[in-house]
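User: structure tokens for this one?
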Amino acid sequence: MISMAYDLAKISMTALMRPAFDAGVALTRLDECWFPRRTEPVRRIISIEN
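Assistant:
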């Protein structure tokens, strides 16, 4: 009985934390889309060609 209550508490905590985790992943992906890494070398190449 105690282990069942523990499992329910664990599941509810996971369910509560899941939206925050998903939002963090979405923000990380949005950050990578708006500020992609490795753009500085591309800018240097473009400035050299011009």
